[in-house]
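If your schedule permits, I should be very grateful for your opinion on a structural question. Thank you for your consideration; the sequence and its tokens are set out here:

===
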Amino acid sequence: MAFAKVTEIIKESPAFTQLTDLAAERLGGKVLFATDDFFAEKENLIAPTRGVFITDKYTDRGKWMDGWESRRKRTPGHDWAIIQLATSGKITGFDIDTNFFLGNHPPHASIEAINITNADGITNWENLEWKEILPKSHLDAGSQNFYECNSTEIYTHLRLHIYPDGGVARLRVYGEVFKNWDAVAANQEIDLAAAINGGQAIACNDMFFSAMGNLILPNRGANMGDGWETKRNRTPNNRDWVIVKLAHKGTVDKIVVDTCHFKGNYPDSCSIEACVSETDDVENTAKWEILLPQQKLSADTIHEFVSQINPSNAITHIRLNIFPDGGISRLRIFGKISK
């Protein structure tokens, strides 16, 4: 008997995939409910990285799969799952990724959304006033499936429908964090760079080993891959850099540079520049000023800088420079918003 082989479809990522993944587990997203996750747990939907495949790995229920997979439906209806976003936000697009689900992916999916102040105690998710933000759409097997979202409303929870059953490796929900800045006091210290507050890593010169967006995720890095790491550079006096758009214009009181897990590959030193700009086209056009002069770094260490910070007015963007190369786990820019 011949077995059909389906090869993975490689698609170009649209621009919206550079935005924040509002559903990401690492940011605080949760999968609250699924009608069926017999073969593979619903929580995998929002796990980091794309799903993987391990050829000979099985469970007592069947083939182990890195995603959410329901059993073959023998009754009317279809399966669905509830995702609580890490933070309320405006959604720009989706990636419904069926990576490695080849003979068992759903042919179609749709997404509904709702804004709920408090979801505690909800048991009957079907009775809520959901709004469809992605109509029933085709899914390719073993592939990322990108779809734009045209809604401009703010949402907190999603319901992913798959028709009629099957497996989805990952769901990415790209958009802009919504934060009620009116509720933040003028003297309240806040991490102006944090992704959960709306900060974004928007550009860098190198992220060979790991992504720049990891720098502003919550908590300390889980491992060396959970940070921003550049390749080894042999050029004399090299400088690698990353630009972060702050969640809100503000003044800076404290900076934290964490080299957690980076032991033989931490940067020798770092500095931070700052600017004020109404656009994100800042790399070569902004007037950068030194916020933090060059400081020595150590392996696997939380570095806190307060007195070393140069006094400055409110800023909108920062540029972290590392010399000559290496890895930083987290960057915190603590300060007060400018109202």
About this structure: Confidence is low (pLDDT under 50) at residues 1-6. The longest strand covers residues 79-97. DSSP finds no helices and 22 strands in the chain.
